[in-house]
Automatic annotation (TrEMBL):
Pfam families: BPD_transp_1 (PF00528). It comes from the Bacteria. The chain crosses the membrane at residues 20-42, 54-78, 90-111, 136-161, 191-210. Its main location: membrane. This is ABC transporter permease. It comes from Streptomyces finlayi. It is found in: Cell membrane. GO terms for biological process: D-methionine transmembrane transport.
Amino acid sequence: MQQDWDVLWPKIVDAAGETVYMVLATLLFATLFGTAVGLALYATRKGGVFQNRLVFVTLSFLVNVIRPVPALIAIVILNPLTRELMGTAVGTDAVIFPMTVIATFGVARIVESNLVGVEPGVIEAARAMGTSRIRILLTVLVPEALGPLVLGMTFMLVALIDFSVIAGTVGGGGVGNLAITHGYLRFDDRVMAVTVLILIGLVQAAQLLGNMLSRKVLRR
């Protein structure tokens, strides 16, 4: 089925904008919440500055259960809660909620694993100087692990671009929705090709930006 590209191009631009909005908003919220959970995981583990086995086991269990859930299943499972909180389960704004829930636990594990890689001597030196436990976490550990953390967030950003496409196929808007409604269902390979090129461009831009930021941080 041939389509009028004079009408379609504005829809393509809008869809690309919706995808960027979904991904960046989700990354922002997931980074805030996920960093908090990741810091809690690191701090409460055995030998951590706030060692607490119960808290660590509970958080670790939640991360291990929620993080592997496939994106499509997560959106469906969270539909009732999304509708309750957002007033609807359809649309770009609504889909940010389930995307954030899943991404938060992915970010948490990234943060924890990178903090674990910080040299123990750095922590001991901070303790010897009388630095409080909170300050050790926020002003010693996080800056020390910042380079790898930026690379980890880059990986998450790319994953969220994929996630947004899946969300778009179930009413979330963006490039995924465009690919289904104007490409797949209308048997228009040209639209499918355009959406694939947009996604490749977004992924390349995200990876380039992440690599640049990590190099800048590591040179400090």
